[in-house]
Amino acid sequence: MKNKILILTAIVMFVGASVTSGISANIKDTNSFSPLAKGYIYVDDDFNESTPGWNVTHFNKIQDGVDAAVNFDTVFVYNGTYNENVKIGTLVTEKKIDLIGEDRDNVFILGVTGEDAVVTVSSSDVEVNGFTIDGDSGALEGIRVSGGKQDNILTNNRITDCSKGVSLKPLTKRIEISDNIISNSEFAGIELQESDQNDIINNKAIQNNVGIQLSTASSQNSIEDNTVSNNDREGIILEGISNDNTLTGNNVTNNRGGVKLSSSKINTITSNNIQDNDMEGLLISLSNNNVIEKNNFINNKKQAAFKISWRNSWDENYWDNWIGLKINKTIFQKAPKVIRGIIRINFDWHPASVPYAI
């Protein structure tokens, strides 16, 4: 009896494995995504009814897949070119979904002029991951998050030729913008307007007008480990009462200006590499009580300057034009670095003697 049970169990397992294998062989490869998993919707620009083996929900257009999805679904988009503008949710209807591309460099969303953005996120708890997004030669924003939305993830996208690469509208909160490559934006690669508690991490903002711009009271944001280079104006701007933000670990190089603070206070700028900018490495205007420490200031036309600003703290920064590096005498090793402003001067009393590894 025991042997019969073992034989019957083996037959059931074999048949089950054969059926599963047969189904999987007829489904288009989805990498780590289970093609038969509940909650997955698939989009392929070259799908047609004669495609063998398609027995899952599928669409030719991304918007059709998004419209068919319900909260907590994943819309998976295969490699291809999609000429459309995608809207996730509306201002009154949430659509909490993940929109995932098969391969960032081979899934193209080409925006069509006449809309505000290539991808508009009007819902909270949305992830957009793995796309090349083209803004029709600057006519469109790349990814726009509508006002009041929160807890979205915008990651691993290539965004190019947009008016603004990523745009967070007022009262957005807790948005992660990470691991994107953003270039050739007419205005800013990443722009925040009255948007708080966001993480801008490990992006490349290259050859935009401005790399990263916080404006209109955007506070408590973290700008960390980004490469911000070759932008027409400043690499990073904090303006319009953008207070209590942290800039750390960024490489801000070869821009017209490096970092600019305007009418913003209580920000922390630490452990950044600010180098080879055509004007000031750091310009502080009408901004008080900011902390600037342990940064590299290397080969900027003017390392740093300030105007009409008070109680800013400078400490342990590396300055490649500090007198203590130029004159190797004991007395000069104790000299502070002088930061010149209009009428007044500030001091970094403990300049670093070697650059930091950033």
Describe this structure in words.
Helices cover 11% and strands 38% of the residues. It is mostly beta strands and 358 residues long. The chain has one domain: Single-stranded right-handed beta-helix, Pectin lyase-like (Pectate Lyase C-like), CATH 2.160.20.10. The strands form four sheets. The protein has a 13-stranded parallel β-sheet with strand order 2-1-3-6-9-12-15-18-21-24-27-30-33. An eleven-stranded parallel β-sheet has the order 4-7-10-13-16-19-22-25-28-31-34, with no helix packed on it. The termini are far apart.
Secondary structure layout:
Elements: H1 2-25, E1 40-43, E2 58-59, H2 62-68, E3 74-77, E4 80-83, E5 86-88, E6 98-101, E7 107-110, E8 117-121, E9 127-129, E10 132-134, E11 141-145, E12 153-155, E13 158-160, E14 166-168, E15 176-178, E16 181-183, E17 188-193, E18 199-201, E19 204-206, E20 210-215, E21 222-224, E22 227-229, E23 234-239, E24 246-248, E25 251-253, E26 257-262, E27 268-270, E28 273-275, E29 280-285, E30 291-293, E31 296-298, E32 302-307, E33 313-315, E34 318-319, H3 323-326, H4 330-333, E35 337-340, E36 345-348
Parallel strand pairs: 1-2, 1-3, 3-6, 4-7, 5-8, 6-9, 7-10, 8-11, 9-12, 10-13, 11-14, 12-15, 13-16, 14-17, 15-18, 16-19, 17-20, 18-21, 19-22, 20-23, 21-24, 22-25, 23-26, 24-27, 25-28, 26-29, 27-30, 28-31, 29-32, 30-33, 31-34
Antiparallel strand pairs: 35-36
